[in-house]
Specification:
about 725 residues, about 30% helix, alpha/beta, 20 helices, 6-stranded parallel beta sheet, binds zinc ion
Length: about 725
């Protein structure tokens, strides 16, 4: 008798057996099954002859959802992720699927159409439309730029866009085809910038490995033209009728990037897969990718699980970015899984970055990955970085004389400057000068941050908000002081220094409203802003052509934290921020205000020398026995009860069998020992051998599960990027 082994969306480490009723069920099918008195969707991992459960007790599969079964390679990827990251198979499976196809009532989306300009449509001129017919003019322009549009594009253009297009069909200017059925017009080769020698070499070398597993590090500073290399590779892959998966960090996935791709590849079906999309659109895109129709898939980390039957190439842009690591549930690294997929599918994988993660850099220097460098910026020169020693600065001054002069000169030239500070709010601490009291969150082991906008105290960990006290709750002193500076305070100082300048603050607070950040970007591009003040949101990927001056304010704190990755991250971040200065044809300058100008990190930053600093860090890590020279897994646990937490971690620290090649450290409180009333602790396991650590983890997990500490929530974070 046929039995289907099914993964269900629940925290159980095994599959569930169901009987078939003559259905043609295959591996990879999504099925509806009864489970705990309700109906739910399951994913079939196997179809077997026997179950170790008595036949009479097995329930029947009710129906099969109308979705093509997932390919074996995707099932294998899910299984690998579930095992490697110690996550129950059902949770892992359902974490990877778009929400819509997980519904019991799933129905395939309605027929989608694509609209294509005809020859007659191509010959339309703007003069054919009355001057006030702005929508008609815009529609024509959009079709000319893209050749092909979908209903969603037309509706995005204007609410009347689709209706107008229907009338154009009657006029013979537009043709309507079922989606993804039109053959691709010749890829346009016009407007291709000439490649530098280095770009050319990168394209040739990577192209030569198409059709086989081959990992590459493409190291290139901001503005060195990595994207152009991606474009050429995508073009080559598309010519072979294959698909490219391009993974980008969350914040980089802007409409501009997709727009740039669409303009470059007007005939190519390109879909996005990210959290900004509506569920229906996300599902439709996933289906187009799964059917092999989408030739380019641009997505954030989750897109790594998209079934791509014609995969030809994977690109991970900004591979060092922390957002490729999922921080809850299935705690996977999309970058690491990209390597797994590339090997599984025998395709090349390109990891691109100006400041590669030390893991990737070590793989490149040891010869495991091919190593390609783009050392020159084809357009603008590399920005000059200067270090400003703040130790001699008069008390109360926030900017050095030199920086103030530069900011003023930049205003006079009509160019933009960026003042970078990675702390939002007005002041990071509110203190009483008389008794030393400072405002702490009652639910977290953290200080409250003073926010100016609503004159309140905010906890950045649990979101708790309080009114600013009129006087010190401890001694009654009315003179409370904000210590240190956040972006709001910098914004105010800059406003006082340059009263006529347009200053725009960009951080999580100012961009909370939906689309706020997009509108701000438009303002920056159209020169309505002189000085930008902001956090790391400004560090990444955005190209502001008139931005020529970057001032980095006191980034020193990260040099002295306990996390051994802190200096790597700081260096990556500062290189990225510096890269914002000077694009297009304007040279850029960067000033770093620091108390430790002689620190090797700043010295390397000044030389824009990623490699020498990476070598230093790798030597340190090797001596200290840190990744990438060892492999780590972190047990994270939290509980409202501190004693329950401690006893759970104590139990965890005493596994039944000892694995000689795995070191288990002592339980310690987490960096923030309490958040929202929950105590947090952790325990690190480490080994020189990845396989040994994996063997240990699967035994350890059983040991941890056996402890019925109901008041403790825990998870194992394999290859953690934060300790
Ligand atoms: Zn006081
Ligand atoms: Zn809090």
């Amino acid at each position: 008798m046929a039995i289907a082994r099914v993964a269900l969306d629940c925290p159980v480490y095994s599959l569930f057996d169901y009987r078939l009723t003559g259905q043609e069920i295959q591996k990879g099918h999504l099925v509806v099954v009864p489970f705990r008195k309700r109906r739910t969707v399951g994913l079939v991992f196997d179809v077997v002859e026997h179950s170790h459960i008595e036949t009479a007790r097995l329930l029947y599969i009710e129906s099969i959802l109308p979705v093509e079964p997932l390919p074996e390679t995707t099932l294998a990827l899910i299984e690998f992720s579930s095992e490697y990251y110690q996550c129950p198979i059902g949770l892992a499976s359902f974490a990877t699927l778009p929400a819509t196809v997980k519904r019991v009532r799933y129905a395939p989306p309605k027929q989608q159409w694509q609209y294509v300009l005809t020859r007659a449509g191509l010959e339309l001129t703007p003069e054919q439309f009355p001057a006030r017919a702005t929508l008609q003019r815009r529609l024509r322009q959009s079709f000319l730029a893209n050749r092909m549009l979908r209903a969603a594009d037309l509706l995005a253009l204007s609410s009347g866009g689709l209706r107008l297009t229907e009338t154009w069909i009657k006029k013979g200017w537009i043709e309507k085809h079922p989606d993804n059925t039109v053959s691709i017009p010749e890829l346009s080769l016009k407007d291709q910038p000439a490649l530098t020698d280095e770009q050319h070499a990168a394209v040739v070398k990577i192209s030569a490995t198409l059709g086989s597993f081959s990992p590459w590090l493409l190291e290139g500073v901001t503005g060195s033209g990595k994207t152009e290399v991606y474009f050429r590779l995508i073009e080559e892959v598309a010519h072979r009728g294959l698909q490219t998966l391009l993974l980008v960090p969350e914040i980089n996935l802007t409409p501009q990037l997709e727009e740039r791709f669409r303009q470059r590849f007007p005939g190519l079906t390109l879909v996005g897969l990210h959290s900004d999309l509506g569920q229906a659109e996300r599902c439709a895109n996933w289906l187009a990718a799964r059917a092999g129709e989408a030739k380019v898939v641009i997505g954030t980390r989750l897109a790594i699980f998209t079934p791509l039957p014609k995969l030809g190439l994977i690109i991970v842009d900004e591979e060092h970015d922390g957002s490729f690591k999922q921080q809850e549930g299935l705690r996977y690294s999309a970058r690491d899984l990209a390597i797994f997929c590339a090997r599984q599918r025998q395709v090349p994988v390109v990891l691109g970055s100006a400041t590669p993660s030390l893991e990737t850099y070590q793989n490149a220097r040891s010869g495991r990955f091919g190593y390609l460098r783009l050392s020159r910026r084809p357009v603008a020169a590399t920005p000059g970085v200067r270090l400003v020693d703040t130790r001699g600065m008069p008390k109360g001054h926030k900017f050095s004389e030199q920086v103030i002069k530069q900011l003023g000169a930049c205003l006079v030239r009509g160019e933009q400057s960026l003042v970078f500070l990675n702390r939002r709010g007005f002041a990071p601490a509110l203190v009483c000068g008389a008794c030393g009291w400072n405002a702490q969150c009652g639910r977290c082991s953290a200080r409250l941050v003073w926010h100016m906008t609503d004159a309140g105290l905010h906890c950045h960990y649990c979101g708790n908000q309080q009114h600013l006290p009129r006087a010190c709750p401890s001694c009654g002193n009315q003179d409370l002081k904000g210590l240190g500076e956040g972006t709001q305070r910098l914004e105010r100082w800059l406003g006082e220094l340059y009263p006529r300048a347009h200053i725009l603050r960009i951080d999580r607070d100012s961009t909370r409203r939906k689309r706020a950040w997009q509108e701000m970007q438009a303002d920056i591009r159209t020169q309505r802003v002189d000085i930008l003040v902001g956090t790391q949101m400004l560090a990444k990927g955005h190209d502001f052509p008139r931005l020529t001056l970057v001032v980095i304010v006191n980034p020193d704190a990260a040099l002295f934290t306990a996390d051994f990755r802190a200096s790597e991250k700081l260096f990556q971040q500062l290189m990225q921020v510096s890269g914002r200065a000077g694009r297009a044809n304007l040279p850029g300058e960067v000033f770093v205000q620091t108390q430790f100008p002689e620190h090797p990190l700043y010295q390397a930053l000044m030389r824009q020398d990623y490699r020498s600093y990476a070598e230093d860090l790798l030597n340190e890590r090797k001596l200290a026995g840190f990744p990438p020279f060892v492999y780590q897994a972190l047990l994270r646990a939290e509980s409202h009860s501190e004693s329950a937490l401690m006893s759970f971690l104590g139990h965890a620290a005493r596994p039944p069998t000892v694995n000689q090649s795995v070191t288990l450290f002592d339980p310690v409180p987490a960096a923030i020992a309490k958040i929202a009333g929950k105590h947090r602790g952790q325990l690190l396991a480490q080994s020189f051998a990845r396989a040994e650590l994996q063997r240990f983890l699967s035994e350890w997990r059983l040991h941890l599960t056996a402890n019925k500490a109901s008041r403790v929530r825990w998870s194992i974070d394999v290859d953690p990027i934060e300790l």
